[in-house]
Records
---
Amino acid sequence: MITLKRPTEKTELMRLQRKYYFDISDLNKIEVSALVSKNFLVKVDSVNILVQKPKKSRRGKMNITRRSRSRIAIVTLAQGHSISLPTLDKAPQEEQSDAQ
């Protein structure tokens, strides 16, 4: 399974360098490249995978739990290719009625 990571300030800046962040489950680089190429109809230049270790958190005084680990794929697209995504600065326009 592959999902696009929610847009943040860092991911928006990396989009200018043709790099896109995806949350992945247990896929390798070849599978990520094939899925992105197939779903978005783009040419993938490189794929880097990061593994975020589970973090400890407390619930009460003695109960210590762990958050699950997550994997992130950073996909760099070839020159001239891009994925069209909605940007953060565009807010939906509200319709105003003329009440006279």
---
Amino acid sequence: MQHKRTAITDSHPIDNILSSLENVIETQKYQYRAKCPVHQKANSSSRTLSIKEETDGHVLLHCFGGCDYVEVLGAIGLKKCDLYPNDGFIANWAYERELGKRTPRDIINDCKPSATLVQVYVGHILKPENWKVLSETLGLDDKDLWVLQGASECLRELLDA
């Protein structure tokens, strides 16, 4: 009979998962093996569940006995979303395991001033009178105009993120 445990959910996903498993060992940096809570008996000492923490903080699970990761999560009282850090956690997160590593949110925020400047220039370039001069000078065609407009839209999405 399986007993369900509930992990603490306000810390790193890896901490929640590892604290809910039995017979855990670290096999490599950020990689672990543990007893599978779904198929292994209470007295089993083998470790068929592989756990890996990715650099962005999400956790990968693989049972070499064939159990689905959703079953594993259910057996320890967790859900799929518990494999990932929450958005609020990521937004303010300088991930401790790799000091100096920037989060995706940090990268986006650092790019915003440059993206804003480019967005302004592209808006100016796309005015018909300016595009005519630029396209004649540089030998650009309508395809180049569409590419520039697409890049401008992508930058706008970045700025809105």
---
Amino acid sequence: MPRMPAALRLAALAAAAVLTAPVPALAQTPAATAPAPAPFTLAPLPYAYDALEPVIDAETMQLHHQRHHGAQVAALNAEAAKNPALATMTLEQILAETAKHPPAVRNNAGGAWNHAFFWTIMAPQGTGGAPSAALAAAITRDFGSMDAFRAQFRTACMGRFGSGWCWLIVRADGKLAVVSTPNQDNPLMEIAETRGTPVLGNDLWEHAFYLKHRNRRADYIDGWWAVVNWAEVSRRYEAANRR
């Protein structure tokens, strides 16, 4: 049998070496890590955007919830990204120490809590019920009558210069009081002039009523009582008294 030329023998040996060489393991591409969920979220409303018509129009409710409340939640999450300790706290815990935090935390934590509270203490007309016997008795005890309470609440709303909120709170001594706060402050904050647990509150920022009432804050306040969710207000009152 004729010998294979040297050049061909070398080529064959090289090819065999390639075929029998171990195949290196493929490097594993690390799986993409899903972003951590935001610590604060915008919950949906407990009713449709048009559920409070004709007292509060659907467009106002949608803009108020999605744009204003939503922006405050997003801004608070941005602050939590810069200060991860915030992500481990509840809104109530943040509000109790707002003096330790920059204004952006105070404003947006306040706004996030205030609006989440606000949606729950309203309900479609005819579904909010009446104050519980315990709450009605406390209102009579501390204000003289329901009419006197509503008059004092209205005065506080109208007396708040610029933007802010008006509240019915349970004070530490168990008595009810009407107070108002500027901007997105609330009575849970340690910086509040009068501290207490809110059980009822009204948003006095113009975005809460301007599309329907323009600058007529009094019309908004007077009509708003028709959508107060007294069942939820009563529940909050009773919970505040158990603390």
